[in-house]
Amino acid sequence: MVACHECDLLHEICEVPHHGRAHCTRCGAELYRHIPNGLDKMLALQLAALLLFLIANLFPFLSLEFGGRGEQMLLASASFKFFSAGMEGLGVLVFLTSVLFPLMTIGGMVYILLPIRLGYRPPWMSQVYRVVRVVAPWSLLGVFMLGVLVSFVKLLDMATVIPGVALYAFAALLLVTTMARYIHDESVIWPLVGHDVGERVLSGSASEHGLLHCHICGLLSEGPAEDEHHEHCQRCGSQLHSRKRESVARTWALIATATILFIPANVYPVMTITQLGSSDSSTILGGVVKLIESGMWPLALLVFFASIVVPGLKLIVLTLLLVTVQRGSLWRLRDRTTLYRLTEAVGSWSMVDVFLVAVLAALVDLDALSTISPEVGVNFFAAVVVVTIVAAQSFDPRLIWDSDERSGRKELE
């Protein structure tokens, strides 16, 4: 048996065709997939990603030529500028999401897959995979690449921008990691460990039958439904819970925090451009207006959507989900689950403005000729993005379906 991680419904495991995917019959979430020769494909892509990652970090990423002066940056340079500007927290965030977490994700998968390919289980495999699952959502290579593209376009009018070898390697890395996520098949990893609950339960939710679903490895375990017992997965050692503890209260607190931070994030400037002694500070919305004035409508719409619309909609959607859960609403359960799924997927793209400022500040540092400096607004905006991502992760979508099960039990009574 397998339980849906979004609605907790139990399903009997059945065979799926090559490259096929099994989806939950109730909420539509993906349950599992079957990739032929999955181990070889996954390992090949992760090894290629590791090589491309090293190239992307060791060679020049971008170069800038302006007024007879030149400046070049490495991939990690995007975070160093924040340290020199006294924004250490922001520097750590950019370094983690653009360098360290991607490396941990790729390196962790190579550490797991290579020994499996050689026929044995690596030491601490469960612990390493848990770390990979935690940091993978914070590996924002695609968002960083979008920030690079936006900064590239913004600089074309004021200087000559030369892509480095590392930029091409980074683009290839993004493609390879996207393919790796698409063909990722967890059944390649966990069958080696064993443990099974059996197939005696064929209907209803896991919690109704006293089963706990591991969100890391997917194993069903017998255990009490009360969260205070702190049961652990027999297979990967992760802590089990019938529902995320204090999910509603924690998510409300994070939404309130993000809403407060959203105001200064849009009021204060995020960067200052100094060119030949003349300085000009701009907010997030001001940057969108300048792109429109330059005739870059597609880019302006992209930045506006990612930096303003997405955070605002995310707060509205999470508020709607919390209110309907607390009211025990049965309104459009599947649609609300899909809405949560989309909210969780697109939330990290709001980091594009943070990466944009990081790249521009690292690249444009030509003293009196031209300098771009980060401002306090980018701190608030980064905090909004991080808090909303954590808020989405704190919400338990299974709570949406608990109302349906309670309603069904009342009808039976």
Structural class: mainly alpha
Give the neighbour order of strands across the main sheet: 6-5-7
Q: Mind summarizing the main beta sheet?
A: 3 strands, antiparallel
Average pLDDT over all residues: 90
Order of helices and strands: EEEEHEEHHHHEHEEHEEHHHHEHH
Instruction: Quote the distance from N terminus to C terminus.
Output: 28 Å
- How much helix is in the residues? 40-55%
In terms of DSSP E residues, the strand content is 5-15%
Tell me the Rg in angstroms: 24 Å
Uncertain spans = none
In total, the number of domains comes to: 1
Shape call: globular
Number of helices: 13
DSSP E strands, number: 12
Membrane topology: Multi-pass membrane protein
Family: Belongs to the PqiA family.
Organism: Solemya pervernicosa gill symbiont
Protein name: Paraquat-inducible membrane protein A
Distinctive features:
413 residues; mainly alpha; three-stranded antiparallel beta sheet; 12 strands; 12% strand
Secondary-structure blueprint of this entry?
Elements: E1 2-3, E2 10-11, E3 20-23, E4 30-34, H1 38-58, E5 62-66, E6 69-73, H2 77-84, H3 88-118, H4 125-135, H5 141-155, E7 160-163, H6 165-182, E8 211-213, E9 220-222, H7 247-267, E10 271-275, E11 278-282, H8 284-293, H9 297-326, H10 333-346, H11 352-363, E12 370-374, H12 376-394, H13 398-412
Helix pairs in contact: 1-3, 1-6, 2-3, 2-11, 3-4, 5-11, 7-9, 7-12, 8-9, 9-10, 9-12
